[in-house]
Amino acid sequence: MKTYIAILRGINVSGKNKLPMQELRTMLEKLNYYEVKTYIQSGNIVLKSSEEASEIEKTIKVGIADTFGYDVSVLVRTITAWEKAIANNPYTTVEEKQQYFTFLSETPEIKSFDIDAKADTYQIIDDIVYVNAVGGYGKTKLTNNLFEKKLNVTATTRNLKTTLKLLALAKEIN
Predict the structure, then answer these.
(1) What is the DSSP annotation of 137-172?
(2) How far apart are the C-alpha atoms of 121 and 133, rounded to whole Å?
(3) Are 42 and 13 in contact, with CB atoms under 8 Å apart?
(4) What is the pTM of this model?
(5) Whole-angstrom Cα distance, residue 100 to residue 97?
(6) What's residue 39's pLDDT?
(7) 100 Cβ contact list (under 8 Å, min separation 6)
(8) Region 77-99 average pLDDT
(9) How confident is the model at residue 16 (pLDDT cuts 50, 70, 90)?
(10) Which of 98, 100, 92, 105 is nearest to 6 (CA)?
(11) SS3 state at 68
(12) What is the pLDDT of residues 31-63, one digit of tens each?
């Protein structure tokens, strides 16, 4: 069995797509995932499975639709892929609260595009958009919706703290 990190897009945000983490863990265990842990309320999961990442994405997506009635994007990565995402972060010299990882469903063909994002910057490396949100993520124009539209992929963003915590949780059960 491998350990995976799964992240959901748009769960428990602004009162929409409410999904209690205990109910999510129960659903995942019924789908035969093991050592399931969640972190905070925004759809961050670590689990063990003998399935490949792409199959886990499909199974969780269908499980959430069947159980909760939500169409939710699901991205799943191995510990190795997660470690690579952290290692490739080009913004390690800026304040921690400015560093964001936008995980993409696939590596986009486009590597950059013009946008007036004020002091905020981004870099696309493989299937991650690294965001330096100087004024915080709540104020940046560099959002999931923007990257999905410009890059034609599914995207979901996590801050540095959450990204590091998910790696630590995954290593605990590995």
Answers:
(1) GGG-S--HHHHHHHHTS-EEEEEHHHHHHHHHHHHH
(2) 7
(3) yes
(4) 0.96
(5) 8
(6) 96
(7) 130, 131, 132, 133, 137, 157, 158, 159, 160
(8) 98
(9) confident
(10) 105
(11) helix
(12) 999 999 999 988 999 999 999 999 999 999 999
Cα separation, 97 vs 55, in Å, equals 33
C-alpha 50, offset from chain centre: 21
Number of neighbours of residue 110 by Cβ within 10 angstroms = 11
First-to-last alpha carbon distance for the chain, in angstroms, is 9
Residue 13 pLDDT exceeds 80: no
- Cβ atoms of residues 131 and 122 within 8 Å: yes
Structure tokens at 141: 């124009």
Question: What residue has token string 């330096």?
Answer: 132
- Average pLDDT of every residue of the chain: 96
Tokens linked to 154: 């599914």
Q: Which residue has the tokens 């959002």?
A: 143
Count Cβ atoms within 10 A of the Cβ of residue 22 and give its class: 0-12 exposed, 13-18 middle, 19 or more buried.
exposed
pLDDT band at 139 (very low <50, low <70, confident <90, very high): very high
Q: In one letter, which amino acid is 60?
A: I
